[in-house]
C-alpha cells in the first residue's frame, strides 16, 4: 500500500485527488493538508468530499505527517511547492508535482533537488495530453520544414492564474524540440496592433479564459490549402487526479530523479 499525502486538499484539484486516492487500489490516503488557520482542520477528509467517513483528519502541516507517508501529491502554488520539495528531500520522500507556473529558477532548483529524491513533475497529468505530445512531435517533424505555420491555442476557466497554461507550454516545447526551434526565442506570446506578418519559424500562443472550461488545447499546423489540428479537451478534473495518483504509485518505487508523465505512462521514445 502506498500512503499518499495531499497538499492543498481544500483546493479544486485537492478534493479530486482525495477522491481519486480513496478509489485507487494500492493507494491509501495518509494525510490531507490545508492552509494554517483553515476552518477545515480536524474535519474527516472523506466527509469533506462527500465520500463518507474515512478516518483521516485534515491537518495544517506537512511537517507533522511526513514521516507517516510515502509520497506527497502537490497541486498548489509555486511557493508552497518549493517548501514541499525541500521537506521531501530532508525526509527522503517522493513527490508528484502538478502545480504550474514555476519560473525558470524554481525549475532549476527542482532539477537539483531531484538528484536526491524521486520527483514526477508534469503540467498535465492526463493520459490523453501526454499521448498528444508524441503525436505533436511526429506532426512537427513532418510539417515544420514543409511550410506549415504552428499555433497553440488554449482555453481554461476564469479562475486560472497563469498564462499560457503549463500544458500549452509543454505542447509548444514538444513541437519546438521536434523541429529544432527554441521556444524562448521563437515563441510569440502576444500580438497586438500593427505587429506585422508572422515569421515562418515562430510558434504562436493564444489564450482564452472563460467560465468553467476545464482545459482545452489545440495545436494547429496550417499552410496554403490545408490545416491539421490536434486537439485535447478535458471534461473533468478527475482525469488529472487519476493520472497524479497513478504517478504517485509509480514514483514511490522509483530511483531519485526528475521524471514526467511520459516516464510514468511508458511513452518515452
Ligand atoms: P486552487 O486554488 O483551487 O487550489 C490550490 C490550493 O492550494 C488551495 O486550496 C490553497 O488553499 C492551497 N494552498 C496554498 N497555499 C497553501 C499552504 N501554505 N498550505 C496548504 N495549502 C495551501 O487551484 P487548483 O485549480 O486546484 O490548481 C492548483 C494547481 O494545480 C495550479 O497550479 C494548476 O495550474 C495546477 N493544475 C495542474 C494540473 C495537472 O494535470 N498538472 C491539472 C489541474 C490544475
UniProtKB/TrEMBL annotation:
Subunit field text: Homotetramer.
Name recorded for this polypeptide: 4-hydroxy-tetrahydrodipicolinate reductase
Described purpose of this protein according to its UniProt entry: Catalyzes the conversion of 4-hydroxy-tetrahydrodipicolinate (HTPA) to tetrahydrodipicolinate.
UniProtKB keywords: Amino-acid biosynthesis, Cytoplasm, Diaminopimelate biosynthesis, Lysine biosynthesis, NAD, NADP, Oxidoreductase
Species of the source: Zymobacter palmae
Catalytic activity: (S)-2,3,4,5-tetrahydrodipicolinate + NADP(+) + H2O = (2S,4S)-4-hydroxy-2,3,4,5-tetrahydrodipicolinate + NADPH + H(+); (S)-2,3,4,5-tetrahydrodipicolinate + NAD(+) + H2O = (2S,4S)-4-hydroxy-2,3,4,5-tetrahydrodipicolinate + NADH + H(+)
Any one GO molecular-function label of the UniProt entry: NAD binding
Binding site for NADP(+): 35
Domain Dihydrodipicolinate reductase N-terminal, residue spans: 3-125
Principal location: cytoplasm
Gene3D superfamilies: Dihydrodipicolinate Reductase, domain 2 (3.30.360.10), NAD(P)-binding Rossmann-like Domain (3.40.50.720)
Residues holding (S)-2,3,4,5-tetrahydrodipicolinate: 157, 166-167
Domain Dihydrodipicolinate reductase C-terminal: start-end pairs: 128-265
GO cellular component: cytosol
Entry's localization field: Cytoplasm
EC class (word): oxidoreductase
Pathway membership, UniProt: Amino-acid biosynthesis; L-lysine biosynthesis via DAP pathway; (S)-tetrahydrodipicolinate from L-aspartate: step 4/4
Amino acid at each position: 500500500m502506498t500512503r499518499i499525502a495531499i497538499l492543498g486538499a481544500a483546493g479544486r484539484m485537492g478534493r479530486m485527488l482525495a477522491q481519486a486516492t480513496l478509489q485507487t487500489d494500492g493507494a491509501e490516503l495518509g494525510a490531507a493538508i490545508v492552509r494554517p488557520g483553515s476552518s477545515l482542520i480536524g474535519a474527516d477528509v472523506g466527509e469533506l468530499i462527500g465520500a463518507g467517513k474515512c478516518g483521516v483528519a485534515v491537518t495544517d502541516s506537512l511537517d507533522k505527517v511526513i514521516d507517516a507517508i510515502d509520497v506527497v501529491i502537490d497541486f498548489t502554488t509555486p511557493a508552497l511547492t518549493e517548501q514541499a520539495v525541500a521537506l521531501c528531500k530532508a525526509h527522503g520522500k517522493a513527490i508528484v508535482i502538478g502545480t504550474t507556473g514555476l519560473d525558470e529558477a524554481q525549475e532549476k532548483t527542482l532539477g537539483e533537488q531531484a538528484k536526491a529524491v524521486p520527483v514526477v513533475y508534469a503540467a498535465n497529468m492526463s493520459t490523453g495530453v501526454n499521448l498528444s505530445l508524441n503525436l505533436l512531435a511526429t506532426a512537427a517533424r513532418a510539417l515544420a520544414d514543409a511550410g506549415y505555420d504552428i499555433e497553440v491555442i488554449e482555453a481554461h476557466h476564469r479562475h486560472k492564474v497563469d498564462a499560457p497554461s503549463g500544458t500549452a507550454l509543454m505542447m509548444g516545447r514538444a513541437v519546438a524540440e521536434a523541429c529544432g526551434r527554441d521556444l524562448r526565442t521563437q515563441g510569440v506570446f502576444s500580438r497586438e496592433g500593427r505587429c506585422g506578418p508572422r515569421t515562418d519559424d515562430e510558434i504562436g500562443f493564444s489564450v482564452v479564459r472563460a467560465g468553467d472550461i476545464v482545459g482545452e488545447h489545440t495545436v494547429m499546423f496550417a499552410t496554403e490549402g490545408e490545416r491539421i489540428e490536434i486537439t485535447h479537451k478535458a471534461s473533468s478534473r478527475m482525469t488529472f487526479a487519476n493520472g497524479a495518483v497513478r504517478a504517485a504509485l509509480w514514483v514511490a518505487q522509483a530511483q531519485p530523479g526528475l521524471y514526467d508523465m511520459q516516464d510514468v505512462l511508458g511513452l518515452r521514445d
